Each structure stands twice: as structure tokens, then as C-alpha cells.
């Protein structure tokens, strides 16, 4: 059975994306901490381990897309500065998708979509938001 993409922030049947800084985690569709405009580089990670059945792992080349819902950034896809990768360790090996995001434009509200195909053929997709603000 393939679950659809999270339709609203209140639908959290996909597991949580984790922001790779200690203590900052959020659920499917919930915004990540703000990205500082300019030169800040962050690595958001979407963790699918709660959705994968035992023995199933992410096996395809993952995809991460970046769109600006405020139409402030003329080229939001260029904010992805590394190719998406599949990560995990221990019992959660190959269960997360991540990519580095950098050089955001102040005022943008980035919609980040993470997807990969599991070893059983199921396509998993999750999303979250990240606002970009002027550094303080």
C-alpha cells in the first residue's frame, strides 16, 4: 500500500523530518527553523523510518525539490547545493533523505519535498516548510 503525500500539516502519518542541529525536530508539514538569508547552509533531513516495515529500506536515488511559495526567490531550485542522499545508521539504515540548502532569499517560504523509492517498490514522499529571513 502506498500512502499519499501529507496533504496538510495536521496529517502526520509520515515520520518526522529532522533538522540536523541538536534539539530541533518537527513533524510532517511543520515549518523548520528559519534559514538566514545569504550564506547560511543547513541540512534538513526527512526521516521515513516509522513508515518503513521491518526489512524495507530506501533504495532509489532520492529527490529533494525546493520551491518558494511566496514567489520572492527567482530560482528556488538553485538553493539545493548538494545532491540528495539516503542516510541512516544502526537499525535505521537507509531510511532518511537529506540535502544541503544554502543562500536563501529573505522573504521566501521554501517548500521542501523529499522522496525516494523503497526496496519494496513503494514511493515515499514527505514535505516541510522553511522560511528565509534576514540575519539578525
Polypeptide structure, described:
With 136 residues, this protein is mostly beta strands. The protein has strands at residues 17-19, 32-36, 41-42, 44-47, 63-68, 85-87, 96-98, 101-102, 109-117, 123-133. Strands 1-4-7-6 form a 4-stranded antiparallel beta sheet, with no helix packed on it. Strands 2-10-9-5 form a 4-stranded mixed beta sheet, with no helix packed on it.
Write the SSE topology.
Elements: E1 17-19, E2 32-36, E3 41-42, E4 44-47, E5 63-68, E6 85-87, E7 96-98, E8 101-102, E9 109-117, E10 123-133
Parallel strand pairs: 2-10
Antiparallel strand pairs: 1-4, 3-8, 4-7, 5-9, 6-7, 9-10
Give the gist of this structure.
With 136 residues, this protein is an all-beta fold.
SS elements, strand count: 10
Widest beta sheet: strand line-up: 1-4-7-6
Given as residue ranges, the uncertain stretches (5+ residues, pLDDT < 50) are 1-29
- Counting H and I runs of at least 4 residues, what is the number of helices? 0
SSE string, helix = H, strand = E?
EEEEEEEEEE
Task: State the assembly state of the protein chains.
Answer: single chain
Structural class: mainly beta
Shape: elongated
**Beta-strand percent range:** 35-45%
The helix content is under 10%
Major sheet description: 4 strands, antiparallel
pLDDT averaged over residues: 74
Amino acid at each position: 500500500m502506498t500512502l499519499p503525500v501529507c496533504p496538510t500539516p495536521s496529517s502526520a502519518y509520515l515520520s518526522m523530518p529532522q533538522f540536523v542541529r541538536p534539539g530541533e525536530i518537527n513533524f510532517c508539514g511543520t515549518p523548520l527553523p528559519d534559514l538566514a538569508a545569504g550564506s547560511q547552509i543547513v541540512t534538513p533531513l526527512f526521516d521515513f523510518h516509522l513508515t518503513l516495515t521491518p526489512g524495507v529500506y530506501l533504495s532509489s536515488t532520492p529527490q529533494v525539490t525546493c520551491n518558494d511559495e511566496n514567489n520572492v526567490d527567482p530560482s528556488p531550485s538553485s538553493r539545493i547545493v548538494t545532491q540528495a542522499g539516503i542516510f541512516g545508521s544502526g537499525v535505521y539504515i537507509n531510511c532518511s533523505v537529506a540535502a544541503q540548502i544554502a543562500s536563501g532569499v529573505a522573504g521566501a517560504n521554501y517548500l521542501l519535498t523529499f522522496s525516494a523509492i523503497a526496496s519494496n517498490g513503494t514511493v515515499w514522499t514527505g514535505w516541510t516548510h522553511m522560511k528565509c529571513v534576514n540575519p539578525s
